[in-house]
């Protein structure tokens, strides 16, 4: 398991390997100043995951989710698709769900309310 914090201290990530899958737990604020840190973590996760196992992005502890986070999700989904490693998003609060839904990404990305369902490939909630 790997833990790290963005340079501005607003975002903390914890990367965990579960079998062939990789889970990236995120806490704090996803905004322009912390975006590079999260992007690096997701890039590493895609590299570490063994296809066809997923990369699961756990956003349940995110307190702010800026629009730049949506672009990151789109780009990460594209990279995961190219690597045959599906991206799954875990989000339970309006902080993350509302921007996802407003942008229509809940129709593009599989979004789950909890980590267990995301790992089990259950039906997305959003």
Provide the descriptors you would attach to this structure in a database record:
alpha/beta, 37% helix, 4 helices, 126 residues
Shape: globular
Mean pLDDT: 93
Return the structural class. alpha/beta
Radius of gyration: 13 Å
**Physical arrangement of strands within the biggest beta sheet:** 1-2-3-4-5-6
DSSP strand content: 25-35%
Q: How is the main sheet built?
A: 6 strands, mixed
Give a description of the structure:
This protein has 126 residues and is an alpha/beta fold. It has helices at 35-48, 67-82, 94-103, 115-120; strands spanning 2-5, 11-18, 21-30, 55-65, 87-90, 111-112. Helix 1 (35-48) packs parallel to helix 2. The model has no long low-confidence stretch (mean pLDDT 93).
């Amino acid at each position: 398991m790997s833990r790290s914090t963005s340079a501005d201290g607003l975002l903390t990530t914890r990367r965990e390997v579960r079998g062939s899958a990789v889970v990236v737990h995120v806490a704090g604020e996803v905004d322009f100043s912390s975006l590079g840190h999260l992007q690096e973590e997701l890039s590493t996760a895609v590299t570490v995951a063994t296809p066809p196992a997923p990369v699961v992005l756990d956003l349940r502890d995110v307190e702010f989710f800026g629009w730049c986070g949506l672009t990151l999700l789109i780009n990460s989904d594209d990279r995961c698709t190219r690597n045959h490693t599906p991206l799954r998003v875990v989000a339970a609060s309006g902080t993350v769900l509302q921007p996802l839904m407003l942008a229509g990404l809940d129709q593009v990305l599989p979004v789950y309310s909890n980590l267990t369902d995301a790992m089990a490939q259950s039906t997305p909630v959003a």
